[in-house]
Amino acid sequence: MSYRKRSAALASVAALAGSAVLMAAPAARAEVVDVNYQCKTPIGDKNAVSPIDIKSAGSGGGYTITMSWQKGVSSSPVELGKGAMNPSATIELGGADSGTMTVTGPANQEAVPANTPIKISDLTGTYTPKKSGEVTFTPGVLTIKALGTTTTCTPSNGPGPALKLDVKAAGGGDTGSPSSGSGAELPQTGPEDSAVALGTLGGTVLLAGAAGALWLTRRERTVRR
Fold first, then answer.
1. What's the CA gap between 93 and 128, in Å, rounded?
2. In angstroms, rounded to a whole number, what is the distance separating the alpha carbons of residues 119 and 150?
């Protein structure tokens, strides 16, 4: 095989390797789920259904998790003035992790009229992976504090996960320390950052292929001489 053909073959293999690495990049999979809330309020039981989605964004060594409501839930017999209501919620973790995390948000920015569904602002929290793998995030209990009272809304329909996220624990393992002989690993901050890092790795492979082609070219010329 001529040195030109060998050079072309090496470049093709390097390009394919870079593409394969990018295709292996982890991704977040989110979907809107309907949650049927059964609410315990100071004036009795109420229920409401709201579509909810949960999104993630890389943040340092973890993820910022945002939970959003598309419809209002519960209501108040009296008007809630600006800043009178403070919401929070839990998110159930599953898959490679377990337990719950808490998301919080600001008080209501506008007054809520009496006997109207209460619109919950976006709630956020920080999730730091303890184990590597796919973690699911499912809407949990919503708590609304207003005018010295507490309303607790619990999902009653067993909603499925609103987010599935491939994560990597710090150090690359369950124990949080690098594997023996592997050296320290860079922290993973999220699917988008992973894609950038893996793309850089693909570029390195491509450069290595080009370097190999140059070496073969020089060797071929030396043999001819």
1. 12
2. 16
**Terminal alpha carbon distance of the chain:** 18
Number of H helices, E strands in the chain: 2, 10
- Choose among 187, 193, 173, 190: nearest CA to 57: 190
Q: Alpha-carbon distance 208 to 61, whole Å?
A: 30
Give the whole-number percent of the chain exceeding pLDDT 70. Answer: 64
- What is the per-residue pLDDT across 6-38, written as a single tens digit (0 to 9) for each? 555 555 544 444 444 333 444 678 889 999 999
Collapsing DSSP to helix, strand or coil, 163 comes out as strand
Q: Which two tokens stand for residue 88?
A: 């929070």
Q: How far apart are CA 189 and CA 55, in angstroms?
A: 14
49 SS3 class: strand
Q: Tell me 157's DSSP state.
A: S
The Cα 48–Cα 214 span in angstroms is 68
List, as one string, the DSSP characters of 75-133: --SS-B-TT-EEEEEEEEEEET--EEEEEE-PPPSS-B-TTSPBPPPPEEEEE--SS-E
* C-alpha separations of 199 from 132, 206, 219 in Å: 21, 11, 30
The pTM of this model reads: 0.64
Least confident span in 56-65, 92-101, 151-160, 189-198 = 189-198
pLDDT tens, position by position, 111-131:
989 888 888 899 999 999 988
Polymer length in residues for the chain: 225
